[in-house]
Amino acid sequence: MPDDPRTAPPRPEGPRDDHRSVQEFFGTRAAGWDARFPDDERAYAAAVARLGLSRGDTVLDAGCGTGRALPPLRSAVGDRGTVLGVDLTPEMLAAATTAGRDQWALLLLADVSRLPLVHASLDAVFAAGLIAHLPQPDVGLRELARVVRPGGRLALFHPLGRAALAARQGRQIGDDDLRAEPRLNDLLAASGWRMTSYEDQDARFLVLAIRQNQHPRDRRGGIG
Ligand SMILES: C[S@@+](CC[C@H](N)C(=O)[O-])C[C@H]1O[C@@H](n2cnc3c(N)ncnc32)[C@H](O)[C@@H]1O
């Protein structure tokens, strides 16, 4: 495997192995994470701006890592707003704290596929570099839909487009790629989201979606 921290860790057997594999992969990279990507600040701020947050909103940074998106998220929602950062890797959250980013958000150690949040409690979710690391992206996206209010928003962001990232990792991408437009559109629709914008340029991958009124679980007898 190339030594690139944006490369997905090997796929393990079950949920506990999935977690351990993610934690091992990112745990060893957490301390040097920000130094490896020093020029991304403006790209994160620009992506956050596209989320259309208002003062006083409640927003989650899902898979927040070292918290690079937390300062622009806090700026967008202001002092009366709420910013949460969730990550599965303790070392990433520790690096966020060391960098002082815990001043902008409440940081939680949790799995985005099983969030300790009540239904429809968020206005929006920002997720940078997350989706490719989820063993079951549909489960993660459904859980994010559960905690976002109808009409709330989702941004799936990466500071590199698909082709640029694949080239860096020395691999090819095809239409079966998780983040290919038709596939992601279907995945989002089946998970309670309506895709409203899809951008895949060298310098950024950014998909925006709106939480549909009906959550997939509603059809099976109520959100639960
Ligand atoms: C590529 S890093 C991106 C970190 C940060 N969002 C950024 O843009 O710098 C992916 C992050 O997702 C976290 N992650 C992966 N699977 C997760 C899960 N199921 N729940 C919460 N966090 C997860 C990893 O621990 C890691 O910090």
TrEMBL record:
Entry superkingdom: Bacteria
InterPro entries per record: Methyltransf_11, SAM-dependent_MTases_sf
Species name: Streptomyces albipurpureus
Domain called Methyltransferase type: residue spans: 60-155
Gene Ontology MF terms in the entry: methyltransferase activity
Pfam families xref list: Methyltransf_11
Alphabetical UniProt keywords: Methyltransferase, Transferase
Protein name: Class I SAM-dependent methyltransferase
